[in-house]
Amino acid sequence: MDTILNKVVLITGASSGIGEATARVLCRAGASVVLGARRTERLQKVVQELKEEGGQAEYCTLDVTNLEQMHEFVAFAQQKFGRVDVFINNAGVMPLSPLDSYKVEEWNQMIDVNIRGVLHGIASGLPVMEKQQTGHFINIASVGAYQVSPTAAVYCATKFAVRAITEGLRQESSGHIQVTLVSPGVTESELADHISDEQARAEMKEYRRISIPASAIANAILYAIEQPQEVDINEIIIRPTATS
Ligand code: NDP
């Protein structure tokens, strides 16, 4: 097992849910974490708590749809901690709805955050890692990257895309870069809070009763990071044991 001690880990979408839990788990395991998201007050609170526990943590306001801000996020991490060892592309949105409700703005938002956001993370983080000759990308997809369900066509399309981009990154990046796709099943978070379609929202509320804690996903991420550099954990799927 490699040690996570002193690794510099950047996490997008770290203001709630899986990103926040991952920041906490990795920081407590000894990583220096840099949290990014739009809700600065939330990031500030998490970072303050981690620092009070003796952890190394910083935050930077980040909208992943903005490439300039993504470059600034990476530059901020380099300035604070000197390097970028792990980049976790976690930020995502899931405003589910049937296609024939034509919520085009929400489709575009999912494409912008879930796909463009991941590409921006790669565009900003990969050059740094290639220069360092070491690094690890962890992209958060979903079980929706493997199967499509009603109301989730666009969301699943974005997660199929994340899976394709991650496999492409694995094939194309130099032999020094580890690449991991993490695909959660239903997990406790704020993800479903932004569903505007009433029926999809009600169905999701019912479905989410079997949610597993966000720390379960964070522990899987920790496992991938702890591997020695020559070992690349390519895909992890984590679902609740319960099926309905
Ligand atoms: P949350 O809604 O709790 O977290 C989503 C995070 O993404 C928030 O921190 C939010 O921060 C951030 N975010 C959204 N838009 C942007 C943006 N434009 N720029 C920067 N950050 C943004 O949900 P989860 O923790 O569940 O989601 C994390 C990831 O896990 C997502 O990619 C999601 O698709 C995936 N996932 C989740 C599952 C689940 O059941 N929870 C299942 C499968 C996959 P802010 O609003 O402050 O910017």
UniProtKB/TrEMBL annotation:
UniProt keyword Membrane present: no
InterPro entries: KR_dom, NAD(P)-bd_dom_sf, Sc_DH/Rdtase_CS, SDR_fam
Domain Ketoreductase per the UniProt entry, residue ranges: 7-185
Domain of life: Bacteria
Keywords of this entry: Oxidoreductase
Alphabetized GO MF terms: oxidoreductase activity, acting on the CH-OH group of donors, NAD or NADP as acceptor
Membership in a protein family: Belongs to the short-chain dehydrogenases/reductases (SDR) family.
Name assigned to this protein: SDR family oxidoreductase
Organism annotation: Paenibacillus kyungheensis
